[in-house]
Amino acid sequence: MPSWSTVRDDFPILHQQVHGKPLVYLDNAATTQKPRSVIDALVHYYERDNANVHRGLHALSTRATDAYEGARARIARFLNAADPAEIIFTRGTTESVNVVARSLAHVLKPGDVILSTEMEHHSNLVPWQQLARATGAKLRFVPIVGADAEGGLDLAALDRLLTPEVKVFAFTHLSNTLGTINPIAELCARARAIGALTVIDAAQSGGHAPLDVRALGCDYLVLSGHKMCGPTGIGVLYGKRELLDRLTPTETGGGMVVTVHYEDATWKPSPERFEAGTPNIAGAIGLAAACDYLDALGRDAIARHDHELGRLAYEKLAELPGIRLIGPRDGRSGVVSFAFEGVHAHDVVTFADEDGIALRGGHHCNQPLMRKLGLTSTTRASFYLYNTPEEIDALVASLRKILKFFGVS
Ligand code: PMP
């Protein structure tokens, strides 16, 4: 069992004052902070091993290649993938979804259905809209239940929606706005039963919960390194080997080809066929260091910690006058969103910042969901492994001050 109080010592950035107050960082759904071991892995790479991968025979290039491919193998282990070749490095979740969606442009046809849910981040929505437009496929959405989406996804509606025309079912594991934890194993099993491909958006769960792609039986899973203690600019597209080798690459160029003639070229198998050009070598190495860090703490323990803080925050915030909390009451992750009638989220975030508290206000890249809930924005507090119950108290005290200032009581 990790000691959560010493975990904070691993994160240099947390030990600072903002506007004269100790930093309370509650914007983890946007991006997480980096432990010393990840920062050290980046520095070590740039100070000792930096060279381009795959193309050199000199010592540094060999070390850089070993470290880069070692990172791929580490992430395969992190997700329990069958083969490191199933791990494609991308810039992040957004690019990963785009790669899958664009590469399916040759597979889908008019009348096919792309199924998603009403709670998706724009990054797991807009690329599917583009695919639908390009192929004539239709988009459908699993509805959310309840005026505050407190009931999660309408699983009963799945029977009606999972028709043989559904070729792809793309859904989020944890909602970045609602804090909902979706039953991804069940969603994968039900999609598999009708032969639909499954795409899991694990942007919010990558470093927050155990993930086992083989046990889930998903076809694709996407995540972002920066939301799980890793660097920005690196992410993962996991795909089943036999599927990846059939996909058409969406970017072409150096590194992904076998033979090139003036008029034509042939592609390498995955993962290289999806990694044209010089990759983010340092980012991959930093992400592998993040996997080591998270696994040393234990992802089950991290999930319990997140959920406990999410539950505690929800309970304490519910006592504030005029608050509307969205998402589930029970069984929630560490993401908590709320709105106050008459006080805009941007004002809440600006005032909280004066108290050293980092929150996020806006639509959280969930415009259709916001519209559905009759909101334009919410304030979001999102917790991670270094957050404490005392920080929730600081948040509640700051919010009380803000409400008083705006005359809400
Ligand atoms: N999906 C979800 C659920 C997210 O929370 C985010 C980031 N907020 C994304 C996708 C996009 O991730 P990125 O910006 O790292 O590509």
From TrEMBL:
Obligatory cofactor(s): pyridoxal 5'-phosphate
PROSITE patterns: AA_TRANSFER_CLASS_5
Domain Aminotransferase class V: 24-395
GO MF annotation list: cysteine desulfurase activity; pyridoxal phosphate binding
One of the GO biological process terms: cysteine metabolic process
Catalytic activity entry: (sulfur carrier)-H + L-cysteine = (sulfur carrier)-SH + L-alanine
Keyword Transferase: yes
E.C. no: 2.8.1.7
Keywords attached to this entry: Pyridoxal phosphate, Transferase
Function: Catalyzes the removal of elemental sulfur and selenium atoms from L-cysteine, L-cystine, L-selenocysteine, and L-selenocystine to produce L-alanine.
Protein name: Cysteine desulfurase
